[in-house]
Amino acid sequence: MTANEALPVLLDRAALHGALADPVFDSISFLNEIMDRYPRAISFAPGAPYAGFFDELDVAACLRRYTDYLAETKGRTPAQINKLLYQYGPARGVINELIAEALRQDEQISVAPESIVVTVGCQEALLLVLRALCAGSGDALAVVNPCFAGIAGAARLLDMPMIAIDETADGIDFAALEQACRDARANGGNVRALYVAPDFSNPSGAILSLEARHRLLALAAQEDFLLLEDNAYGFTAAPGSALPTLKALDRAQRVVYLGTCAKTCMPGVRVGFAVADQRIALGNGKTGLLADELATLKSMVTVNTSPICQAIVGGMLLEHGGSIAALSHGKAALYRNNLAYLLDALERHLGGGNHPAITWNRPAGGFFVRVRIPAVADTSLLAYCAAEYGVLWTPMSFFHLGRAGDHELRLSCSYLDPQQIEEGVKRLARFLCDPRVLDGKAVQ
Ligand SMILES: Cc1ncc(COP(=O)(O)O)c(C=O)c1O
């Protein structure tokens, strides 16, 4: 057979990495596919920012503001600025100082710029931290469950075992976490870290009480694990109501703080960061920082985060006195308004004791509301709802490690305006009052 006659290669998916067959990866492609299939449906599915924010965004002005700052405040020459923006850059990042200043102003987190790594979204930060912490098959990640699909996906990509720790009304199942640490040790392994989103978690909108935050820090010290604090939604807290982050309460470098600019600036910029000020014993009597190790790993993943994208974020920060809170002030107000509108619409269309089998939580911030329904909220029910009622949501089972959440769905309020929310909830109410859904019978 000549080379031209050879059959095209056919790879067996079963021979590729197991993550590809994991339900968490399927769930994301399913949602994308159903949104494409029903473009006119009102979608409560994506946790994406409100698109209207981008109408007036002047990216060129953001870039200019940052380069002016480099020239005027940092004394950089045009050639130095060109090199900084257009060449390969440091794996650790270029706007670290500005991020450190924003964390100081907004969160009372005091860290050196060297302990920050600017990543390609928070997603890369998650991946790098897990890669660094997972040294062997006995190293496990505890995850507050239900959880953001991005953490489950990252752990799965790295074959890092996960232990689900249930979320409770004002915290997490501490007894289960403590037991998981002991069990892991008894089996020769270790719980290296707990992933937790204390402020308006995705998908639950839950917050961790102050007492639970202190308790978690104490347990992390007692059982010797790190806390991976994801704070994607804390900026939506009502003025004066925010609780201190775990990192702000942390006196012993137990917390790796993970940030994203996706919701406060824009997802398209793909900028996030990890604050990793943990000391690393280098084995030669010297110490370094976990951030150094993350930057080393990053140099083999994405090399460096686009300096142009970092400059855009830098310009946006500078425009608002270096504060992410100031930069996202108007956005936070819109999201709070949308959330209040969504909760009000649910009450008007499904509340008042008329549908006791349909219940929902009432988060004080964030993007998400969980709704409990009698039917199994799976992909076939979602497809039925999209086709017959023109409204989309996300099955909560997508966010659970293991089988759970079958009778719940997640609604996101970030992407829509109040008129769309009103119409969407009307459609949702009609759907939920469909006898087949009310009776809890699965749609075939
Ligand atoms: C909990 C959580 N963390 C992080 C992110 C954002 O990650 P990225 O910066 O990679 O867009 C999201 C986005 O949906 C999220 O829900």
TrEMBL record:
Needed cofactors: pyridoxal 5'-phosphate
GO MF, any single term: transaminase activity
Keyword hit for Transferase: yes
UniProt entry keywords in alphabetical sequence: Aminotransferase, Pyridoxal phosphate, Transferase
InterPro entries: Aminotransferase_I/II_large, Class-I_PLP-dep_aminotransf, PyrdxlP-dep_Trfase, PyrdxlP-dep_Trfase_major, PyrdxlP-dep_Trfase_small
Boundaries of every Aminotransferase class I/classII large domain copy: 86-428
Pfam families, per database record: Aminotran_1_2
SUPFAM superfamilies: PLP-dependent transferases
A biological process term (GO) from this entry: alpha-amino acid metabolic process
Name recorded for this polypeptide: Aminotransferase class I/II-fold pyridoxal phosphate-dependent enzyme
Species of origin: Pseudoduganella ginsengisoli
